[in-house]
Design goal:
By secondary structure, this protein is an alpha/beta fold. Helices cover 33% and strands 25% of the residues. It has a single domain, classed as P-loop containing nucleotide triphosphate hydrolases (Rossmann fold, 3-Layer(aba) Sandwich), CATH 3.40.50. It is built from 10 helices and 12 strands. A 6-stranded mixed β-sheet has the order 6-7-8-3-9-10, with helices on both faces. Strands 2-1-4-5 form a 4-stranded antiparallel β-sheet, covered by helices on one side. Helix 4 packs across helix 5. The longest helix is centred in the C-terminal third of the chain and has 16 residues. Bound molecules: adenosine-5'-triphosphate. This is ABC transporter ATP-binding protein.
Length: 267
């Protein structure tokens, strides 16, 4: 069992605080979705949880050890971080296979090449994500969605206990979005702890586990999906009239803007 616990976390880039006194918990087997408007600080929070940024106040504990005291190699064997896709195409001089094999780095000695077993594992996962025929292509020459899937493969090859995903479906078509959500559910079932940010409340409703919302005024609400994903809270967070309704047969909850509200919205 691995746990990542943030206590009273605050962060400011300059002097203006982005978020204040946030408490967050992730345990093995859990899925924790973080929702909030653009620019509110979700990626920054994930960077703090991954140990990339130092919070201005509070601490992040990995299995009861301050994250700052865990060596980068030990951290990489516990936590994989899949950052947000950039719309810019930064040239990367790797093939797609070599890119995903970077995930094995925490298990290899300095300058050691991946082993045959690493390559086989990479090929297996590339195939699972429909990337096998692109494995020898340059990473820079595949689509944004394929790069996003490759970054997920790289995280899985890292064999962490916890995975931090920043908007893992942002570049994906609807079928691949569902595949990634199913994968996330399967990973949690297999015992991984997953934290992800998403702009789609319906993804959090589908995953139906732990949810946190961060609003523009800094208000942070955390709890079970049913408790947090209410019409009232989501409307408050996004400053837009949103309704969480239950579909008649499946009883699946879904978040909508009804057409009357849509027509009457002022732009
Ligand atoms: N390196 C930085 N230096 C200064 N300000 C930054 C830096 N990175 C982000 N910011 C600012 O901090 C705020 C929060 O950014 P962040 O990327 O964490 O938000 P977000 O909630 O993930 O947004 P989005 O949903 O649009 O991805 C934004 O106003 C952003 O401009």
């Amino acid at each position: 069992m691995t746990t990542l616990i943030a206590k009273e976390l605050s962060f400011a880039y300059q002097k203006t605080p982005l978020f204040n006194q946030i408490n967050f918990e992730l345990h093995s087997g859990q899925i924790h979705c973080i929702l909030g408007p653009n620019g509110v600080g979700k990626s920054t929070l994930l960077n703090c949880l991954a140990g990339v940024y130092q919070p201005t106040h509070g601490a992040v504990m990995l299995d009861d050890h301050p994250l700052t005291k865990v060596t980068p190699a030990a951290r990489a064997r516990k936590i994989a971080y899949v950052p947000q896709m950039s719309s810019e195409r930064t040239p990367v001089a790797f093939s797609l296979r070599d890119y995903v094999l970077l995930g094995r780095a925490p298990y290899l000695g300095l300058l050691a090449a991946p082993r045959q077993s690493d390559i086989e594992q990479a090929n297996k996962l590339l195939k699972r994500f429909g990337l096998a025929d692109r494995a020898d292509n340059s990473y820079s020459a595949v689509s944004g969605g394929q790069q996003q899937l490759a970054s997920i493969v790289r995280a899985l090859l890292q064999e962490p206990a916890l995975i931090i995903f920043d908007e893992p479906t942002s570049a994906l078509d609807v079928a691949n979005q569902v595949r990634v959500l199913q994968l996330i559910r399967q990973l949690a079932h297999d015992g991984y702890g997953i934290v992800l940010t998403t702009h789609d409340p319906n993804q959090a409703l589908l995953l139906n586990d732990q949810v946190s919302t961060l609003a523009q005024d800094g208000q942070w609400h955390s709890g079970a999906a049913a408790e947090i994903l209410t019409s009232e809270n989501l409307s408050q967070v996004y400053q837009l009239p949103l309704q969480v309704v239950e579909l008649p047969e499946s009883h699946q909850k879904t978040c909508i803007v009804d057409s009357t509200t849509f027509r009457n919205l002022e732009t």
